[in-house]
# Entry
Amino acid sequence: MSMRLSEFPLSYLSAAGTRAERVLPLTWYLLWVAIAVCLIIAALLWIAVRRNPSTAAARTESPQSIKDVPLVRGADPVRWISVGVAISAIPLVIALVWTMVALANTSGPPSNPDLVLDVTGHQWWWEVRYDSTEPAQVFLTANEIHIPVGATVLVRLHGADVIHSFWVPKLTGKTDTIPGQVNFSWIRADRPGLYRGQCTEYCGSQHAHMSLEVIAEPRATFDQWRAAQVASAPAPTTPDQARGRQLVEYRCGLCHQVRGTLAGALSAPDLTHVASRRTIAAGTLLNNPGNLSGWIEDPQAVKPESLMPNQFLSAQELADVRAYLETLQ
Amino acid sequence: MMPEVTTPKIGISGPEHEAKLNELWETKPGILGFFASVDHKEIGIRYIITAFVFLGLGGLEALVMRLQLAGPNLSLLTPSEYNQLFSTHGMTMIFLYAAPILSGFSNYLWPLLLGSRDMAFPRLNALSYWVYLAAGILLYAGFLTGNGPNDGWFNYVPYAERDYNPGLNQDFYSLGMILLGISTTVGAANFVVTAFRTRAPGMSINRVPIMIWGTLTANVANLIVVPAVSLAFFLLWMDRNFGTHFYDPSGGGQVLLWQHLFWIYGHPWVYAIVLPAMGMVSDGLPVFCRRPLVGYALVAFATVATMILGFGVWVHHMFATGLPGLGMSFFSGASFLIVLPSAVSVFAWIATIWHGRPVYRTPFLFFSSMILLFVIGGVSGFMTASVPVDLQLTDTYFVVAHIHYVLIGINVFSVVGGIYFWFPKFTGRMLDERLGKINFWTMFVGFNLAFLPMHLTGLLGMPRRVYTYGAYGGWGPLNLITSIGSFLFAFGLLLLLVNVLKSRKSGDPAGANPWDAYSLEWAVPSPPPPYNFAVIPTVASRHPLWEDRIGEGGIVSTVDRGMLLTEGKQTIGTTAVDAVPDIVLQMAEDSYAPFWLAAGTTIIFVGLLMKSMTLGIIGAVIAALALIAWLWPTVELREREPTHG
Amino acid sequence: MVEHAVSQPRDLPVGPTISQGVGTWGMWTVIATEASLFAYLLFSYFYLGAQGSQGWLLEPHPSLKYALPSTAVALISCAFTWWGVRSVLSGRRSTAVLAFSAALLLGVAFVGLEILDWQSKPYQLGTSSYASIYFVTTGLDLVHWLVGIGIFVFLILWTSLGYFSARRSIVVTASALYWYFVTAIWLAIFATFYVSPYLGFGRWQ
# Structure
């Protein structure tokens, strides 16, 4: 069952990380109790409705015939209520106690995290800053988070504009990013894999397209990835890349940053290593040349009302920009 | 010289007596009478019709959304269009349908259930309707001009602030909601005072129908919590238009202040829109089970307990906001506890059916199926009470499934059952029983087809409030089923409309008590005369019309002999607990003041919306004049001495 | 043997009395809902303050120069109101008019003092969340006082026209109830905005 469920990337009925796993048994308990209660009540109702049907006269269509069904005299069987409520209270109390335990087990934040991330929710993308005790190891990326398998990762959550909510169902429940305060979440992946996340607090037009991905990988792979991310953008090696870089600096640089170039704005995702990402536009499109071109040429067609305006580049300019961006591994 | 003290004449009715009462109580005919009527029955019908119009509008909005969501990556609607639709749908259903429909039933039925000739404040009753209509029109004026609410029905900041939402959308919503709050508040005042002061003699507090308990509880709550949401919207409007900093962090404001104020109101509100409906079932189901409700006192107590607990759970809407664990634990615990009083009602209803002789009429089908839908909605709510589990469930379609089971299951199914039950009383004709059964099954199957799979959609992680979704989630087929079910459900509601329209003219004549029911409204003709009761009934039990068959002898109620009260438009006032008569109340005549006060107030609000000082002043003058005319003490109402010369 | 209960009350008052009239009950519902409004305003003050950072309190020691006299004025106006009600109940029309007029003038004085207090503040509505909650709370309070003044204008008119007596006095008692309520709200506002900072609220960051 959990194999099948894991095929649904945003389903939380299966877990791949500690924080989500500690909640999963309680989720299933509540679900089974809920289903059982519905079935029992349905059965009681069905029996109640069928067991003492009124006389045939009352079953006809004539509205007068309800008067032919005699009233029931007799005692008030209040026992139903006291017994019913008492029985209902048992799974309820268990749920309550279990909840407190699970809450304590999952609240965090962890005191000695292996990795600290600052995630800021923007309309409609995720800014991710890898913190470090060494300033040179700090870097910015967007929408795609890599973590070592088994590492405890503290996620500090910041709100840049409106409320968003950080959610990676297989790894953790939701925590909002709220302007004016710092919230905390934490994740620890048990096994390697790609875990999808989603903004889950309505935040405007493109709330529907504000996904993120968490990629858990072996320590060595992660270290490699991190080292690559820290590096600045490589110099262009061909003329079209050079032209592309210039366009990126003077056009894209109004909002985006590419470390090592003149593009230094922070109001849109950091693109220094955009070519290394699996998806673009906050998980909306797979990152391949066709989609990249389409996105740059007409972002409003992909994410209407998003904050990236159409650039009106010529075909040559578009090809140059793409050539340069493809070097940003 | 008007008597200051009187001993009311006791007697039985007769044609002369009834003619006199008619003259005293009938609304003026024609269009002027329409605007001046203070007849609670007319006002009740207006509320019901208007609320159903909004149900239809909200339903259309939902159907368009379901077309957009029937498959992945569809582009029937732009994001803006979808976002306004889902927000307006929520606002319409929760504010313009769910509460007003129950007000409508209560307005019509309360004096009849209570053995009284009117509500405590007839003109206030009219005012609450006119303001509701005006607020609904104002809110829809926004929607129809592309300025509808666009931040969900709960409208979180900062997205609602001017920086992110520069258009008029939020201003329409804020001012419209404050205006609507006035309607809710004055209506609540009327219900509370009526419940405590204008019952029939002998209808002690432990003999009132459960619908009274449910509506009374809801309205006491409304008096206390509506100011919270009105304030929330007022502070938002101030932030947007006057540069205040209530919600914006850059000026020392707090984003979460909105959520606290909104949910302090919002959670009790959702109980306010189901408790009266549960009361309708508690009063209607026993009729079709041919026996009294099991555990009346426990059900009454559970009604009040639910609302009291309902004040203490609001933070469960905020579990993901990063609040301290200790606080969240308290609210989580309270959210679990609140299941228990609901369980009381569920078992009371099942026991009533179990130990009764069920008669399968359409109202019975709606009332009994509501129990199952209530439980399904209740258990999904129970699941979200657990903080760590809620952090997975919240903001997914699981919660959407939950809210529709509780809202449609408890409110709509009870209301439609109530229509089938009380339509004969309102109109003197029966609804078509065969069509009624088809109506029921269409609605029941359609609703469950739409919303039962939605639990799974949510468990598979589909987020809420998305105008489209990708194929990656695996939610396509489930969404298609939901869309199909929603159309079937809507068709079912259409059948209700067909049945109502058809039966108004050609339904079987009903008579006073076609269901052989037990409460006082069934003792008067169908439809009731303007004065309700020709003589004031005296009540001796919870089931006045069944006493001869289920009573053990002893004292019984009297409906055909009692106080005549024809020295004017009069009804009897009684003590709060024991319903001992203690005053003869003079009721207000038809008056235009409520309409003009509503009009003036609305003009003020339109002036605020458009930043027009002129409109504001015009509105204020009209409202002030109407208010003065209304409150000017009159001799007829015994508010002052007659002056000499 | 079945006995039919028929209620046959004797000597019932016709039309509203002070204790049994629905008008008094109605005024209590108004009080309940408006008091709730102010409860939420004060909640907002305490919430903003508790969550706020250092320096949230723009006035760590709020000036009582106008607030203290305002409080006195409000309380004295209640005394006059009470006197006016007693006068109506004992049939002394002109004393009642006098008393209500004194209360009205004190009410106007209260409004004047509030406006002077506003003008003396070094901050405006949009300065910060503290300023915003201060002005909106006291502003809504002022609106309630203005409504009270409006009510009393008509109360004085109607009293002088001889409308009210010991028996017909519900309008008087309901109006007085409203006036006492508005004073009670002011006391709560005074305690919150003017007194609680001296007790340490908002200054612990």
The first strand of chain C starts at residue 2 and ends at 4. Helices of chain C lie at 22-51, 67-89, 93-120, 129-160, 170-195. The beta strands of chain C are 2-4, 12-13. Chain C touches chain B through 61 residues (CB under 8 Å).
